[in-house]
Specification:
mainly alpha, single chain, Transposase, 145 residues
């Protein structure tokens, strides 16, 4: 049973343009969600949970540029980066010798050249007689771009 597949698409592949556009949209959502988390932290000194972040971001244009399941995976990446920062900060406070310096807040991805991962779960992959049954993987909403 294969649980994960990784697909690397070369720039010469005809599908590259639509995948690149989706990765760029994923980067935009990542940066927008990170901005929301940072601003909430700076203004209220609290953090947003994943469900609260998802609820807040659902109306954002960057969220709507991707399939919902893929957008949720991007938000989970942001929440994981944020919680990793807090975990590293706790360890740093106990034993600073394990670190070269104090852990920093997660950084934004580069605005123009940045790209982010696309994580398609099985719910976000088109299934049917024309695709998955024949061994062809068709990520949803990617062919129409």
């Amino acid at each position: 049973m294969q649980l994960v597949e990784k697909h690397v698409i070369a720039q010469t592949d005809p599908r590259f343009a639509c995948v690149d556009a989706a990765c760029f949209a994923s980067k935009n959502l990542y940066n927008a969600a990170l901005y929301e988390l940072r601003q909430t932290f700076f203004l209220t000194n609290t953090s947003l949970s994943y469900p609260a972040l998802d609820k807040r971001m659902q109306e954002h244009e960057a969220y709507r540029a991707l399939p919902a399941k893929v957008a949720q995976q991007v938000l989970k990446q942001v929440c994981t980066a944020w919680s990793s920062f807090w975990a590293a900060l706790l360890v740093y406070r106990e034993t600073p010798a394990k670190f070269v310096g104090r852990p920093h807040l997660p950084k934004y991805l580069p605005k123009a050249k940045g790209r982010n991962l696309l994580v398609y779960t099985m719910q976000a992959v088109s299934r049917g007689k024309r695709t998955l049954d024949r061994g062809i993987i068709q990520p949803s909403q990617l062919a129409s771009r």
